Structures are given as C-alpha cells and as structure tokens.
Amino acid sequence: MAAFEYLSVLISIILALGMTRVLGGVGEMLQARSHRRIYWVHAVWIINLFLYLVIAWWIFYRWRNQEPWRFLLFIFVLISPTLLYLASLLLFPREGDVDAAVDYKTHYYANHRAFFILFALFTPVDIADSLLKGVSHFLALGPQYFISNALYFAGLTTAAITRNERYHEFYAIFFLVQTIVVSFLIFQTLV
User: Of the residues 27, 40, 41, 100, which has the maximum number of CB atoms within 10 A of its CB?
Assistant: First the structure.
C-alpha cells in the first residue's frame, strides 16, 4: 500500500463522517417532519455543505503524487475535512430524540456564526493547500480560482457577521450556483 493510499483512509473517514452527519440530519428531518419546521435557507446549506464534502474528497486525490509525506503536511491536509466535519455538526441539532420539536430557522441563526466561520476558514486553508502542491499547480487553477476564493471568503465572513435574513437567503443560493460553476470550471477532472 502506497503512502497516499494509507493516508487517504483517514481523510476519507473524516469526510464520510461529515457526509453521514448531513445525511443523518436529513433523515431525521424526514422522519420527524411533523415535529420539524423546515427553513429553506437551512435546506440549501445542507446541499451546499454536502456538495463541498464531495468536492473536498474529489480534490484530495491531487495529493496522490506527493513524495515523501511528512507528518506536518499530513496534519495540515487533515484541516480541511475537519473544518467541514465540524460545520456538519453545527448544521443540525444534536442527534437523538426524533420526537423533539425543532425549528430549523431558530437553529440556523443560533449557530450561523460558528458554522460560517468554520466554512470561511476552508478558503485560506484551500489556498495554502493549492500552494503546497506547487506554484505551477496554483497558477494553473487560473483567475477563476482566485476570484471564486475571494467571493467565498467575503460571502462566508459576511454570513458569519450578519443575521440579515435577506442576505442569508440570497447568499445560500449564490453560494450553490457559484460552487456548481466553479466545480465545472476548475474541478471537472480528477487530475
């Protein structure tokens, strides 16, 4: 087993835990829908986070040629999936009583600061991650990568600061569209 294959197991586990939490949270929402007040902005962020978990797993493959692997590099590479996993925990109330009444709008705004701070931290970590793969790799990502990261960071930071519902409504959709567009422009191939 190559070093990348060995190390990718832990990365995959952390990302899978995040995906499991998101899917489990959706399952609880569906199971107890009579006791749950769904908030559409929260629902869009469920899709956004799940999509980001998939993208993080997809782009981790770009580390496959790294030789030699150092412990500090591995610890650094663990940061992104850990941020997304922690965000997945904040997106839903604690697992447990399916019969408990939950207002997802209340939950969303009670946790929005921590959720969006974690999500915003993904951006500088991703930039450092891209730089660690080499300057040529970083530059090959093109201007759309730099512009999208600036938009992500500014938008997520603003979402952490404000409770303005109009902003959160707009930004949930904007983030989803931006992520889909960026995914097709930058991340469409596994190499």
Answer: 41
Beta-bridged to residue 36, according to DSSP, are 102
Q: Which residues have CB under 8 Å from 49's CB, separation 6+?
A: 18, 22, 84, 87, 88, 91, 119
pLDDT (tens digit, 0 to 9) for every residue of the chain, 191 residues total?
Answer: 788 888 889 999 999 999 999 999 998 888 877 788 899 999 999 999 999 999 999 888 878 888 888 999 999 999 999 999 999 999 998 876 666 788 999 999 999 999 999 999 999 999 998 898 889 888 988 888 899 999 999 999 999 999 999 999 999 999 999 999 988 877 666 55
Residue 44 structure tokens:
């869009």
